[in-house]
Structure formats: C-alpha cells, structure tokens
Amino acid sequence: MRELGIGLIGTGFMGRAHALAFNNARAVFELPVHLTLAALADADTERARRCATAWGFAQAHGDWQALVNDPNVDVVAITTPNHLHYPMAMAAIAAGKAVYCEKPLAVSLEQADAMRRAASAAGVVTRVGYNYQHNPMITLARQMIANGELGEIVSFQGEFSEDFMADPASPWSWRCEVAHAGGALADLGSHLLSMARYLVGDVVSVCADTQTVHGQRPAINGSAELKAIAVDDQVHALLRFANGARGTVSSSWLKHGYKNHLSFEISGTKGTLAFDQERLNELRVCRVGQEGFQRLLAGPALPGYAAFSPAAGHQLGYNELKTLEVQELILALAGQGADGTDFEAAWEVERLATAIRVAAKEERWVTVNSL
Ligand SMILES: NC(=O)c1ccc[n+]([C@@H]2O[C@H](COP(=O)([O-])OP(=O)(O)OC[C@H]3O[C@@H](n4cnc5c(N)ncnc54)[C@H](O)[C@@H]3O)[C@@H](O)[C@H]2O)c1
Known about the structure:
Elements: E1 3-9, H1 13-28, E2 34-41, H2 45-55, E3 59-61, H3 64-69, E4 75-78, H4 85-94, E5 98-101, H5 109-122, E6 126-128, H6 136-146, E7 153-161, H7 183-200, E8 203-211, E9 216-218, E10 226-228, E11 234-241, E12 246-252, E13 261-268, E14 271-276, E15 282-287, E16 294-297, H8 303-306, H9 318-333, H10 343-362, E17 366-367
Parallel strand pairs: 1-2, 1-4, 2-3, 4-5, 5-6, 7-12
Antiparallel strand pairs: 7-13, 8-11, 8-17, 9-10, 11-12, 13-14, 14-15, 15-16
Helix pairs in contact: 1-9, 4-5, 5-10, 7-10
The chain binds nicotinamide-adenine-dinucleotide.
C-alpha cells in the first residue's frame, strides 16, 4: 500500500483538530493509502516538540520551511493565521506537495488567485478546511435539494454568529488585523458563503453592509494599552444566485448567546430545510402539505455517520467532521472521485467575500464575476 507522509504546520486550535483528524481517520476508515505522521512544525520549537510527541509525529521543526522540504512529507497541512497561508501553500506547491489549508484561503483575492493558479499549474491536490460541509446531514440536505424534494429553490437565509468577541475587553489578536485576517466575514462568514455555494450554487451579485462596532481593544488581556481595530465585527448581505434564488447572509462575532451558530433555512416551491451547527446531528424539513417541521436525526443510514457509530442519535461532533474532511482529502489524493473544496472553489468563496466588502464600501450592488 502506498505511504503518504503528513506534515502539519501549527499547533493551536486547528493544529490540534487536524492532528486528531489524521489519527482518527487512520483508525476509523479503510483508507486506500497508509498515512504516516511525518512532521509537525510550529514557530514555538519547544511546543512543536511536545505536541509531536503527544500527537504521534515523527519529527518536530521550529521552521516551517524545513517541514515543506522534508522528503518524508507528501501533504502539507496549514493551520496558521490567515496571512501565512499564502507563503506556506506557495512553498508547498513549488515543492510539488499536496496542500490541505485552513480557511479562509488567503487575506486578499490576489493571493487566492495566485494560489489556485499555482496549484493548477503544478497539478497538486488541494483542499481547504470548510469542514462543516462534511457533515452527513449536510450531504443529506444537498441530496434532497438535488433530488428536487424542495422543488425549485427560491431562498437561502443564512447566519453564522458567535460571541467570542462580544466583550469589548476581549483583546486584540491576529484575527483583528486586516493584513492578517479580515474580521467576522473572513473568520465566520467564509464558512457560510462556502456552504451557500455548496448547497444553492453560484452567486451572481451582492449588496452588503459591514460594521466595526468596537473600534479599539486591549493590546493583550487586561492591558490598559488599546489597539485600533479596522476589521468588521458584523456583516449583513443580500445575494442573488445564478439559479434565480435570492438570499441573505449575516455574520457576527459579537452576538451574545451563540457559540457556533452556522445556520440556514433553504426554501423551495415544495418545502423548506433548516439546519443549525449547534445541533449538528439534526435537519428540520417541512414538505408542502405538512403543518410545521419534521426533525430528522443523524443515524447509521448515512455512511459518514455509520463510520463512527452503529446507533442512531448517539451524535457526531466537530472533530468527526474534521475526520470526514481528512477522509475526503485522502480519497482525492488516491484519485477516488472525491467532492471537497479545492483552491479553485475556495477562490470562488474569496471572490464572493471580496464582492461583499466592495459592495459595503461603495454602497452598491456588485456583480461577483466583475472581480
Ligand atoms: N475550519 C474551522 O472550523 C476553523 C476553526 C478555527 C480556526 N480556523 C482557521 O485555522 C487557522 C488557525 O486558527 P487557530 O484558531 O488554530 O489559531 P491559533 O492562534 O490557535 O493557532 C495558530 C498556530 O500557528 C502557529 N504559528 C504562527 N506563526 C507561525 C509560523 N511562522 N510558523 C509556524 N507556526 C506558526 C502558532 O504558534 C499557533 O500554533 C486560521 O486560518 C483560522 O481561520 C478554522
């Protein structure tokens, strides 16, 4: 069986999620290749060493370039702050390696465009961490839409809100820098835009409003020194889809009470589907003629669920979605007809997010493919 060496950059929130997913994927699925955890890199060398031991990686590097150049690494997984995706992915592509990059793809449309072009020219497999799309209930929703169970789709109303920045005393982080990240739209909204495209298709035009509510935040936790903030805290947008459907998307990291509220309602001429990531094992559906919604619960009839549990209602969690994402990446690397978000699709998400920013700034409708 072919061996594939995984090199993972970053040991934060997502670094840990990727490490768990690679370990779990080996345990849960009969993969067509043998995965080896070849190397782990972090700017903090000591932490890279500790995490490599705990997570089962053979090598630890303080310099990510050493990981990219490591001959045992075939796939470079990037879980660093957004502005580092571009240099790391471009170096990996130049070395002929597959890239599994966290979202959003980049911090500018120009960077995202260069990344998709480089990947295409090099012929390497790429994937981006839009993990929520790997939920078996989302697969089911997509099938129901494709089968025409909702009729002609007329509306997508989506929201992705959390409250981790709701306190004005929540300190500055890389997520608050325009050059390093891009605010609630980049952080949360990108997942929602990717989901909207995945389920309803291309978006033709947008108009939007973005707002920075807290213009200053402490430089570090508890500090009296304040840093100016220019990124959006919340965004609201109207969408027109290529298939004629209309939509709304909104995203906030200030909305008290919400922890992972990636939610949507999709309505068609024959019914409505509703989903909320805070109840990720459920899908609510109302078909024409029903008085109200029926609640569908995830169970082993869905292959992605059955891989983890033979019993309905026992529930998948966030880390299982990440494991399903890794399975899809490996199938793509083995040439086995997979269905993930590659750099081309992630660039489309960046183009849509950029159109929303331009529409908000210029207070007008923007045609997405004019960018
Ligand atoms: N898919 C999802 O659901 C999801 C969720 C959270 C974050 N993310 C994305 O994951 C990425 C990382 O977010 P996070 O929350 O894990 O951030 P984090 O701050 O927790 O971790 C970032 C990691 O990158 C490391 N790092 C920074 N500079 C580096 C360098 N030059 N070389 C090597 N390592 C370096 C840091 O030491 C840290 O380990 C972001 O792009 C974010 O948007 C995705």
